[in-house]
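Many introductory courses stop at the sequence. We go one step further.
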Amino acid sequence: MSPSNLSQMTFDDLQQIIAQIVDERIEQYLASSPLKQPPIKETLSSISQHRWTPPPDAPTVVEMLRSDRER
């Protein structure tokens, strides 16, 4: 058991107490605020719906870079 007086604690005792308090607070936070993430299927569907494909006659990235270098 660790000493109850702060001045009698070793560095390791203090680290253990701090780690325990941090762990408790993280658990409390996670329990009180569940993650509000959409389901994976919904996310993938949104990605598919918002995907953009350039038109066939659009320049490629390499062509755009070459054009910029030539300026």
